[in-house]
Amino acid sequence: MTTLHKTIIILITLLALTGAAFAASHEDASAMKGHDASAMKGGDRIGELFHESMVDGYMLSYYLMDMRAQKKEDAAAHGSHGEKEMEKPHHIMVYIMDKDHKVVEKAKVGFLIKGGVKESQKIMGMYMSKGFGITADMKAKGTYTIVTKAMIGDTKIMDKFDYEMK
């Protein structure tokens, strides 16, 4: 399976996941107009919360999802056998709220992940489901340093933390 095929499979999986989240949140869109992000349901977020930070008044909430579990469910449902392991099986989302507790929807967000087998991974986030997401390789057990840089208009925020993959 080529890298292009793997990328397409990952994108289709992400679109399916974000589509379900969008459909669920779209039902409540009219009820949520004018409300801040604290009114969001936990189910609107992709993955499991694994870190939160406050940087210069901005709140950053990080969610992690191991897409290998989803792939196993899909493979079992479709009778797939002998699939190769995903190159970048981890999906990381960062949700950013500003000083007024409103969701930041327009920003340039980049990640630098150090640790594991690879020396470092530089990945630009893509806006989806009211957050910014990436796929990364964090298959190796150990401690990873995650650095996030967000350009929100003229404001630059930087966040750095360590996370242990067990």
Model description:
By secondary structure, the chain is an alpha+beta fold. It has 3 helices and 9 strands; from the N terminus they run ααββαβββββββ. It has a single domain (3-32, 45-165), classed as Immunoglobulin-like. A 5-stranded antiparallel sheet has the order 1-2-3-7-6.
Category by helix and strand content: alpha+beta
Mean pLDDT: 78
What's the assembly state of these chains?
Answer: single chain
| CATH architectural grouping | Sandwich
Specify the CATH homologous superfamily: Domain of unknown function DUF4426
Helix and strand element order: HHEEHEEEEEEE
Helix content: 10-25%
Task: Enumerate how many helices there are, as a single number.
Answer: 3
Low-confidence stretches: 20-41
Categorize the overall geometry.
globular
Radius of gyration: 17 Å
Strand order, sheet with most strands: 1-2-3-7-6
Strand tally is 9
CATH domain class name = Mainly Beta
Strand content: 35-45%
